[in-house]
Model the fold of this input.
Amino acid sequence: MGYARSPVPVREEVEFVGLIADYQQGNLQAGEALQTSVRSILTKRIKRCDVTAQEAEELVQESILQVFARLNEYSEEKGTFEAWLSGFAINAVRAHRRRTARMRTRSVTVDDSFELSYEINVSDSDQELLSEAINSLDVLDRELLHMRFSLGMSSDEIAARSDLNAPQVRKRISRAVERLRRHPSVRQVLV
Done:
């Protein structure tokens, strides 16, 4: 499997390949030039992903470290160096968004999680059973269900705020709802 193609002029691609080879042979000046080029490319890619300037700088630095740690894995036959770098940028932004989503869901209080149950007039014992079922889901699924059913957001709106696309959002929500339906606590409430 190759990297996505990027419209990099052939001359620049040859320069990247030459810099990589020189750096791997111990040329520190080539390493500095390569690092400058990598930083420039990653900065452009990451800033397009709607992150703050501080987040962008942190993600660029994180990506640079990963790129240089895996530099020997780059293969010219699979695609351009710039396309290979884009993969690091995308993965860094996705990981950042996941971390942010996890931190947001961890800050939700227990009282906030019961609001929906109170709105639909569920008894205290049933509320505990429903809470048990919901807590059996992973954090991302709980967050997706909250955005969809509590906040009334569409799949496209949820996708815009997460690192998933709309079909992935619909599939995860569908699977989470099905897991809730099968959960023994929910079955007790429905009987």
